[in-house]
Design goal:
- This protein is α+β, with helices and mostly antiparallel strands.
- It has one domain.
- It has two helices and three strands; from the N terminus they run αβββα.
- It has a three-stranded antiparallel sheet, with helices on one face.
Length: about 110
């Protein structure tokens, strides 16, 4: 299919997808905030104000994996996970349009 034959909306999705993949890190994982107690006798966590930690969770070849995310990287990591979700969303839209094209050819 030639570029000129692709509807403008789909071309826009493809352009967004190309920019994301080409210039932004993407990360397939879930984020999980965990609350914990450090065990120091005078720490605020002993009184119920637990420490929060962010973890990345993924499954690779059926094996669950987790990775601690340092506070200074939380913003970047959250963005990378959001980028991955945006990639999936755009791919689904493009796939749906391809599905529709096949369906229209059958009806003709």
């Amino acid at each position: 299919m030639k570029r000129s034959q692709i509807p403008s909306e789909e071309r826009s999705w493809r352009s967004q997808l190309a920019r994301l993949i080409s210039y932004q890190p993407v990360l397939r994982a879930s984020l999980q905030v965990r609350q914990r107690v450090c065990g120091k006798p005078n720490c605020h966590c002993v009184r119920g104000e637990r420490h929060s930690s962010l973890y990345l969770i993924r499954s690779r070849d059926g094996v669950p994996q987790q990775l601690f995310v340092p506070r200074e990287q939380e913003g970047d990591v959250r963005k990378w996970v959001a980028n991955y979700q945006q990639v999936i969303k755009l791919l689904e839209r493009i796939s749906d349009k391809s599905w529709d094209r096949i369906g229209k050819k059958k009806e003709s």
